[in-house]
Amino acid sequence: MSSRGRWCARPTGPDVRPSLPGCGGAPSPPGPEGASPSRGPEKSVRCDMVAAFLPAVVAVPDPLVGPGVAAVVVEVMLRIALIVVIAVIARRLAGMGIRRLVTRATAGDGDDDALSQRHALRASTLGAVLGSAATVTVVILAALLLLGELGVQLGPLIAAIGIVGLALGFGAQRLVQDLLSGLFILLEDQFGVGDVVDTGEVIGTVEGVTLRLTRVRDVGGTLWHLPNGDIRRAGNFSHGWARAVVDVDIAYDTDVGRATAVIEAAANQLLYDDARGQGVTGAAEVWGVQDLGADGARLRMAMPTAPANQWAVERELRARIKAAMDAEGLEIPFPQRTVWVRPQEPEDGQDGTRWRPTSLHPQPAGPAGRADRPAGRVT
Fold first, then answer.
1. Averaged pLDDT for residues 352-366
2. What gap in Å lies between CA 216 and CA 194, rounded to an integer?
3. Which end of the chain offers a freer environment for a tag, N or C, measured as fewer CB atoms within 10 Å?
4. Domain total for the chain?
5. H-helix or E-strand containing 259?
6. pTM reported for the whole predicted model
7. Is residue 249 within 8 Å of residue 333, measured between CB atoms?
8. What contacts 287, CB < 8 A, 6 or more positions away?
9. For the segment 133-191, what is each residue's pLDDT rounded down to a tens digit?
């Protein structure tokens, strides 16, 4: 018998058999003189069998064998409390390890305030994601252990959970794909809040990154919600460094060397302009003739800038280069059309006024050789 049941089987022997009526060591009362005893061999065998199997059929409580019911309850409660305490300690240790790991992995240059803020935000996001995963894992394991202590059969329960998880996995493949893509975006630091990105579908500033979605606001103010699983490629304009690139067209009769000197001088003025040249990180450089078009030659100039500042620098460079070329008398070519009008002599006997049809269809001629109904009059 089980010790938790607090039941035991009494041993068979002389102490049991006397308790059975008609059996036992005490002889039956003698009959008349000369008569045989009332218990025969068959009756003795039956009594022995009953005495041997009776303890197996009727359980007799014995408080002296094993702990009592109260002790069992206390033991189960202690085990449950121990599981809860271990789960809490494991969660706190996991949180400490995650914070240390994330801080070390996202450590950056402390001199750059923007970069430090970016690393802090990334560390906070990663810490929250990994912390939630650790919490879910610890809670599930602790719940399974507690159910086992309460006597619940874990085999069928785990099998049912597996079937449900398999069904959810087939039904939520896109969701799982989005979550995994979002996790890798955060781990690899592909882009973050404040970055200007090109996802192929939209170009704009990232306003939020979660495990499932990325929110991007374009230049028109529209906020786009992009599932992370749909982002196949992403160009980040805010990582590391950038370059302002400006193309300038000059006429074919303009000296290339002179135009290059004028463009470089106008662009390098931004290095000494504290108000408009904050995003400039280096001197301008004219790479040379980029293209020969129908209207003129095209020069390309580049200037290094801080990330996400290249567009503002390009606008300022175009304005300064235009002003410098106008001051130096350098023409920026553009499509032009010259129309030559040949004057026609007036007809004989007229005062300079002539008639001509404006319709493409010929008009019938009159007796004087002139159209009967002229379509228009030109002076």
1. 51
2. 9
3. C
4. 4
5. helix 256-268
6. 0.55
7. yes
8. 299, 300, 301, 302
9. 889 889 989 998 888 888 888 888 888 888 887 887 777 788 888 888 888 888 888 88
